[in-house]
Amino acid sequence: MRAFIAIELPVEIKNSLSRIQEKLKIEPLKINWVKPQNLHLTLKFLGDIPPKQLNEIKQIISGITRITSGFEIKLNTPGVFPDMAAARIIWIGTDQLPLELKQLAEQLEIKLAVSGIPRQEKTFSAHITIGRIKSLLLLSDLEKVIDKIKTAAAGLNWGFDCKKVTLFESTLGPGGPAYTVLDQFNLKIA
Ligand code: 3AM
User: N or C, fewer C-beta in 10 Å, the chain?
Assistant: First the structure.
């Protein structure tokens, strides 16, 4: 089964992001916008795991979340991966990475690697993917999209309290991925 670990978003944040996506859809650009119900902040992509390994993975997540305090995250900046010249992913993230979130992602990498889950080479970057670019955009079009996100986001309060971590199964289909909650893990009460 294909699985990943993520932070779910409050419905108000999903609605705000969805309204921004709607404003951008009027541009005739080849971008797949992530469905509002699928918006999340990935902590760790696990890849294809054998179902019999699921319990071991849950134990690891539980061991980490139990000793990591909940935190507040403020989403305050749009960005792209890998860079403006070759952008494939449009995201909203933060330039104020909470220490607990950084530690959570690092601990998951370290402890899951012991169980054979491949480590992510890139350093953790807290982001919510909102769109996937299907074919490269003109730099001027991309700049316009980013500016529109900044304008639409100005004045929005995107802070939220993160109190739990979710293990998702991702099923790929013709209409895009469908995510199912496999388990949830409470963070320590701060
Ligand atoms: O939240 P984002 O978009 O960063 O891109 C996928 C998504 O991350 C990522 O896992 C999250 C849930 O699907 N993902 C999918 N395939 C991946 C892979 N082979 C991957 N991350 C790393 N390697």
Answer: C
